[in-house]
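Predict the structure of WG repeat-containing protein.
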Amino acid sequence: MKTKDILKKVYFLSFFLSASLSFGQTWEVYDAQLNLKNRLLYQDITLLSEDVRIGKTEEGLYLLNSSFQKSVPLEGNEVYQYLAPWILVKNDLGIGAYHEYGQQVLELKYDEVELFFNLLLARKGNEYWVYERGKGTLRPLGTLDEASIGSRGQIITKRNGQYFLPLTPISHQAFDLIQDNDGDYLLAKNQNGYGLINMEGKIVLDLVIDTLVHTRGNFYYGYDEDQYLLVEGDPIKANVRYNSFHQITYEDGLMLEYIHGKLRRVMKEDGILLDAIGMTKVDLLEKDLYSIKYRDDKLGLLGRNGWLVTPTDSIAEIKKGSNGFFPAMSPNGKWGFLNPSGEWMINPIFEEVKAFENEFAPFRKGNYWGLIDKFGNERFSPEWDEISISESGIALAKKSGKAYFLGLNGNKIEEDGFEKICRLSNGSLLVKKGDKIGLISNKGEVKLDPLFDSLVPEGQIGYQASMDGKSGLISEAGETLIPIAYEAILYDEFENLILAKSAYEPVIIIEEENGKKKRKKGQ
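Done. Here is the predicted structure for WG repeat-containing protein.
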């Protein structure tokens, strides 16, 4: 073979290889000891769960095995959504679905797909289909106004203004309303009234109730034939847990019973929480927390299991507390702290207070906040827009748009402050100074100077650090584990592996022309 022909073939092979590499990226795989274990060629890698990994190449998407080798090809050019065991993929034609084991269950042609553990609900235009995992079949539901999957996996459809449950024994029964909630029962209505349907589609409360409203869990508030009802759902037959001919009101989570027009009872979902004469006002402060006022001006704090603060006549307002200290306002408008017996533990001398946390409570003087201890002693002076305390005793404070760490004596640990402080789940804190991010311990010690564009904790190994568009891995002590020179870092916590994505450097091809070497970049 002539030298010219050999050179042509070498050039063609070089061009082919360089073109192939240019469409991929090199991923370096390290173990927990940072030993290089492997190199992979993918445009992108996505870790969805312990067993589900997706690799993207120029040819398309692939399910990968635990060694990150191609296992099953997937149609589509992007992962749209993942909710175990379903993977939604997408391309220009639409959305499709795969089981995480690799079985395709929906073609890529749908406008929308809703996921549940054993169901898929697909829509294209106004046409709907449902895929049932147990049957392994795709079933058309027809042209509908709308359709959705309920919180317990019931398919709820609406056609011509009426509601249906197509996968149940009452699939052909029409309802004026089917309403989902966070309980196990659907609230339904027809021309006769309201009732309840269980997860299998059986009516467990006949649709005859004049009014029915979901309150919490499997409980409902109703009114029927001059009676007020508190109903609990049941798989066989719903139970009326409380009924009364006296008025029971229900508004914004607060349920009260009036006898002959006078407030008499505070109700919970299944009956009476408090029965007391002389109540004049009940305020729901938050879920299961009530402020109760009486005719003699006594005020108390009621919880789910009884009195948190016994009614006393020395207070005008009370709030949620902690560790036996409850913020309260005296009749003169000053705030302090009560104990559960209604006695002042810290006298009301403050303009405003908040609940104790980590042995300290914020108090306000004028427009600024400080901290007091449980003896009422001022520990951090009131000079801050906001202030709180960490478990380690370091205060986090804000003033004039800056955030500060304060030592136990109130001094600033970092005099210039930070633009932002963010607490991490591991107890450390990310700090932002200018446009850069750093790391500080919960004791205020600088772990990593604010030099980075971003810092992301990666399990027990360290932090993914980014600078100037490149990423690497560093320890909390500042040791460089993987240089900040990669396009991305992934931590596979299940296999305890680190994947580093290399930036592509074009292959340099040496081409001979007339006996001279000519450098040319690969395409």
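The first strand starts at residue 26 and ends at 30.
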